[in-house]
Every structure is written in structure tokens, then in C-alpha cells.
Design goal:
Elements (H helix, E strand, L loop, with lengths): L1 H14 L8 H4 L1 E13 L5 E13 L6 H10 L6 E5 L17 E8 L21 E9 L5 E8 L14 E12 L3 E4 L5 E3 L1 E5 L7 E8 L2 E9 L4 E4 L16 E3 L8 E9 L2 E11 L4 E5 L3 E5 L3 E11 L4 E8 L8 E2 L4 E2 L3 E2 L5 E10 L8 E8 L6 E10 L4 H31 L6
Parallel strand pairs: 1-4, 2-3, 3-7, 8-16, 18-26
Antiparallel strand pairs: 1-2, 4-5, 5-6, 6-7, 7-10, 9-14, 11-12, 11-15, 12-13, 15-16, 17-19, 19-24, 20-21, 20-25, 22-24, 23-24, 25-26
Amino acid sequence: MFCNVAVICFWLLNAGSFSACFTLKQSGRMMCSFVEEQYYLGESMGPEIKYLQRNALLLLNSPDTEEERAARAREFQHSGVITFLVKDPSLHVARHADEDTDKLQCEMKRYSTAGIHAPWPGAGGVGSDTPDNWFTCTIKHRENQFSVTAFLRQPPSPESELRVGDTDTLRVSAVFVVHSGPTVVETALRRDVRLDCGFSVDHARPDVTVEWRLQLRGDRRKLFSYASRSGQAERLEGEVSVAEIPRGNASLRLAGVTLKSEGTYVCSVYVPPLYSSQDIQLDIVESPRVSVSPSSSLTLQEGAEEKLVCDIDGYYPLDVQVEWLREVPGERRLPHVVKHILFTSHRHNMDGTYGISAFILLRASLQDHGVDYTCRVSHKSLRVSIRKSVRLAVEAAPQIGTILLGFLFFVLLIMLAVLLKYLHKARETSNKKKPY
């Protein structure tokens, strides 16, 4: 079976449909979108931008020789695909994005140095008066496990034209990589959290500047900054190991997070003239505590009324779903969702979490005997809903006819007692001797 799968994958790889079987590191190639900005004169006679998107093939470093990879690139020229051939020496981009390629999305763009002409210190980057051509390749995991941005350098040459044709092959080098993961982090209150951010450069002792900022509702606050040129670090919030930065580790550690820690953390790395930033979303989630009142069982007489209360407390964020269900044990049908549930207003606790109560008014009937009334709570923090149940026992109420008959019997007993007493008294009177 494994042999058959391997043969199929080999055929797909040669056919160009390589995303079904191989990781990026195994295949060394990936289909991407090449996005370019085009300026044109709009209806308002002002400059406007539209984005042109074309198919592109990324061929990364692999054990194959450069000639073999160039031959593979020529295979795709007839398919209307732009090929980015990453030549040696280059950084290994796939090391930070080693996942099945069908789980990845890739976007390539031109990169502008904003007029800064700084010869790249890496291989072949010194001594040229003509600026390099730069491209970025951003690879993201579809489930937010990681994000990688690689800077691709195309040395100036007569072949490196400003316009990229639909079937062009561009020989580039990956010289600067910035990566993070995961890009969405969920944590509970008062926990310690590490936000991963790293980088690699193709030359030793780079001039690097690292900065962390927190962005929330339009507010952007600096947490940390470090410049290798001065060796100075500014620590405002969180902890970044300055000793680890030269090794490419710029991860941020947060101790005992609070609700004020929530937001988008931006890790930016600048190696002139290249700048990249990675966004990491930190979400605070607290699971609700659920209780029902009365507790697990309740006994009522038929016709009696009782309020069932479900208390939900200590959850964050605010959105929570609460339902009351009527469930018959052993019955395979879907439970009946109780209507007319009443809710209290949201309670705001001292630690920033929330609470709410949901209750129903129950009128007992014999059909409810042995039935479970279940409070079901769903929340972002829960993989499975929380369920708390009350089992109801209903006792039959005395019949009205029985009560009436007992009352009449009681009345007759009283009347009989009075009559007997009267007759007894009358007999005593009649037995007395008359005076004549």
C-alpha cells in the first residue's frame, strides 16, 4: 500500500500537482500568487491602485543541482507561470514552514526599500552601484500555526528587468527570513505566555534592530526595542533575552497575563534596507463555571411550580450560549429545547470576567417524571459544551373526588355523633319519674 501511495505521489510531483503528498521541505516547490501594484488614472483624475495577481512557482533549495532545478523551471514556462528559482547559497526557508503544501498559502510581492540604497553585505552584495531587485515571499499556515516571510534578492544584471513577464524565470537568493508561530495564541488569565518570533540572515554579525509593540483598538504601545549597533535595549513590558537575539531568537515572554495583555503583538526586525514584521494575536479565554439550582434532583407534586436556575460565572470573552433542554433518559431522539428562558443581565466581575443566570419556570406534570432538565453552556474556551442536569420526580396529587368523599364522611361522622348524643339525652329525660 505504501509503495502504491509513493508511486502516485511521484507521478503527481512530476505532473506539477505536488501539494497532495509532500511537505514543502520534501518537494522543495510551491505554487504562489505573485501580486503587483499597478497605478492608473481614476475617474476622479487622481492616481488609483489596482492589484494584478498572477501564478508563480517557488523553487527552493534542494539537493538537486542548480542546473537540475533550472531544467524543472523550464518545464513550467509553457504553463504561463512565473518561476522564482532560489539559488545557492541561500537560507533554508522550508525549515520554518515544513508542512503539507495544501495547508499553506503563499504570496509573493515586490519589495521597495523606499529609496534606501544600502549594498547587501551577503554574498555578492558589495561593490555594486546598481540597486538590487527585492521580492518578498510570505508563507502562512492556513490554521495559524506559523508565518514566514523571506526576502529574495535578485542581483542587478542586464536580464533583471523591472517588468516581470508571465513566463519569466527569476534567479534569486533568500538572504533574510523572519518567522513567527503560532500567529494566534489563546491563554487563560494569570498564565505565563511565550510569543515566538525569530529571524535569520545570510551573513554574520548583521546590523539588526528588533522591536515589539502591542496594538489594541488603534493604540500602539512599545514594549521592547534593541539595536545591535549600540548594544542598548529598552525594556518597558515583557521580557526578551538580549543574549538570544544574535542567535536569531527574538521571542517575547509575558508573565501573569491580564485582560490588559490582550491584543495584537507586532514583532518587527530591521536589517537595512529590509524591514519585516510579524503579527501575533493574543486572546484571553476563561472557561465558565456552571451550576444549577436546585441541585441534581428535585421532587415535586403534580401541578406544583418550581424555578430552575442555571448560574454561569467566570467566563471571558463575553459571548456565551445558554440553553435549557428537556431530555428523556434512554430516548434516542434529539432533546427538546425549552422555550421562554429568562436571563439576568450580564455581571461584570472584579477580574474582568463575566457572569449570567438563565432560569425557567417549571409546572410539574406526571409526564415529567424521570425527565432530565439540562442546562447546556457553549463558549469560545470550551471544546465541548458544559452540561448540568436536574432529574425531576413527580408525585401524583390527591384526586378531588377522594378529598370530597372524605370530607362528606367526616361531616356524617360529626352529625352521627351529635344525633347519638341527642338521643341519649332524650332517653334519660323520658326515664325520669313523673310527680303524679
